[in-house]
Amino acid sequence: MYEYANTRALIEESEGENKSSQLRTFGSATLTPIEQLNLKALVSHTRYHETQGYSESHNHISNIRDNRNGRAYKGNIFTQENLLELTA
Question: Which residues pair with 76 in a beta bridge?
Fold first, then answer.
């Protein structure tokens, strides 16, 4: 029944956006209180955040074909990692 879909209509009847950001910070320090002893510290922090969104109008071919009123979703992803490493 739907062997042909107008590609321009597919673009005009849907909308989506993804945004992401990633921040990485790190540092290290060495302390030598006496000649035979080295204390080292490594610190790192990573943060990732992503926001996603997508929608299709009622006139989108997949909604007409599947007898739906449209669809939409929104999502978020957030991860954070902290690391502390001490060596002597």
Answer: 51
Place of tokens 């939409």: 72
For the four alpha carbons of 67, 70, 76 and 77, in that order, the dihedral sign comes to positive
Q: How far, CA to CA in Å, does 20 sit from each of 48, 50, 82?
A: 7, 4, 19
Six token digits for residue 54: 């997508």
The CA radius of gyration of the chain, in Å to the nearest whole number, is 26
* pTM, full prediction: 0.64
- Write down the H helix ranges in 22-69: 61-65
14-61 pLDDT per residue, tens:
889 999 999 999 999 999 999 899 999 999 999 999 999 999 888 887
Of 50, 67, 49, the closest CA to residue 58 belongs to 67
What residue has token string 């921040």?
23
Extended strands (E) in the chain: 14-34, 37-56, 71-87
